[in-house]
Structures are given as C-alpha cells and as structure tokens.
Design goal:
337 residues, three-stranded antiparallel β-sheet
Length: 337
Amino acid sequence: MPDTTLPAHLQATANYIESLQLPSGALPWFDGGITDPWDHVEALMGLNVAGRFAASLQGFEWLSRMQRGDGAWFAAYQGDVVVDDTRAETNFVAYVATGLWHYYLATQDRQSLTRYWPMVRRAVEFVLAQQAPSGEIYWAVDSNSGTSKDALVTGCSAIYKSLACACQIATTLGEPCDTWWQARAQLGDAIRHKPERFDRTWESKARYSMDWFYPVLTGVVTAEQASDRLHEQWDTFVEPALGCRCVKEQPWVTVAETCELIMACVVAGERDRAQALYNDIQRFQLDDGSWWTGYVFPDDAYWPDEKPTWTAGAVLLAADALFEYSPASTLFTTVES
C-alpha cells in the first residue's frame, strides 16, 4: 500500500515508477527502454520510500532470477533478454546490497532479507574478487578480456556504501562478514589517500560532479571534511536556482545528480543547501509524476527527452533523506564505522 504521509506529488512519482514495471519485475528506464542493475535498484528504492513493497519485492525477484552463476549481472537487459553482454560493472553488482538493506530498513521484513541473502553474498564475492592489492576495486569485468584494471572514484565510493549495507545484512542474519569490513576499510583508504590508483588508463573523471560529492554521500569522507569538500567546488558544479551540473563545463543540470547532492548535503549537515536544491528541482516534474532527466539552461530545453524511473527513484530518496517520510530515511545519513 502507498505511504499516505508522502505528499501527493511524490505519490504520483511512485505511481509513475510502478506503472512502468514489467510483469517480470524489471524496471526499465522508461517505456520500451533498457533495464540495468544499478538503475533498477535505484527505482526499487524509490518504491520502498512510498511503501510499494510488493512491487519492490518483484524487482528483487527479477534480480535473483537474472543473476549469473558468478554473482554478477550483465550491463543491460530488455526485459529478461540480455542486450549488453560486454561487461559486468562492479558498482552495478554491489548496489543490490544497498537496495535490499534499504528495503529492510523500510519494512523490517526479515524473511525477505533471508530469502535474498544468497544473492547479496554472491554479488559481494564477485565484487571483492576484483579488488586490487592497493585497495581500489576495478570498475568492470569484460566478457572477453577479463578484469578491466582501472578504478572510478564514484563507482568505488558507491561500492564502499554497498559493502557497509552488505555487512549490516550479514550481521542482522548472524552471518560472518569480517573480511568484508576489512575490504571496505582498504577501499576507503584507497579513495582517501591513493588518488593515483584511479583514472590511470583514461582521462580523469574529476570534471563530473559525482566524483566531487559521492565520497560524501557514501560516507568515505565525513564530519568537517565532508562539509569542506562540498564547499570547495560548490560554485563549480551548482547552477544557482537550477541544480547540479553533471559535468562542470557543460551547461546542463540533471535531476538525479541534484538529488544525490541533496542527500550528500544532508549527510554533511548542510540541510539549508539541501532544502534549496530540493526547491530548485520542483520545476522539472511533469503532470504524470515523472521527472525530466535534465535541463540545458542556455537553450531553455529539457534534454534528453526522457523521464527515467531511476530519476524518479532518486527524487523519492532525496525527499526521504530531507523530510524523513519513511523508516529508511537514515540509509545515507547513518555513517557506518
């Protein structure tokens, strides 16, 4: 059942996500679009915020059914058909732990936590098999050439959070996870202190806003350092009265990045900034509850002409972090040691 404490415009957002869920449980980006494991989980978490737990469980069942024998998922699907089998991305694979822990925080449904624990365990084992001796986790496993031995700050930061969620699931179920905590500590140390281990074989991703705020959102950088990090590049990435740019030199703000920055601000204790950003994005909602991907401000144009379910999920997560609509609102604001 819907969570009636949500404002009507957010109920409409949850309705929009749920209306696009396929009978298989998969949540495509939009009608006729692909489903990828990360964005699928993001949309499920939006459903959790709104109390759409049956639909969320359908989504986890789809993940369980589509999981490969090695614990991973391919990059993209069309329904139950693989449409991008070139790689498995470690960040995508790990995110299932974040989504399932979020579901449990919202429901306290231990039976489902137990049911999907083997899926989470296999996913984490796949991801940690790609950890370098220096701590970073390689970004993907290529279907032909094997592990792609370079790492992304944003991807590894997300994995850092996912490992904490996986450990919380394990602890709740009485399962051992000491080696996972140790791997997470090594990963955090690499993100904080070994910048040379990232973007070694391609152009630096530092021009992307996610590299700026994801270490704050996911608890890699905490306390005063978190607030300082956000302040340092705020004027670089935030367009006044519009939101967060995806890339610093492009005049394009995106709703999903802005929502994740809202959550990072809440994590860092910058609630006024979070509230202002949340107010700014309200102009990007459509009458059916969906949200535009982004806005090119010199052209006064919404671009691309897409209203993704994962963007809608990010809006619900940001609203929950800011206004505490659900018991899962503490997912990102609780920083695990």
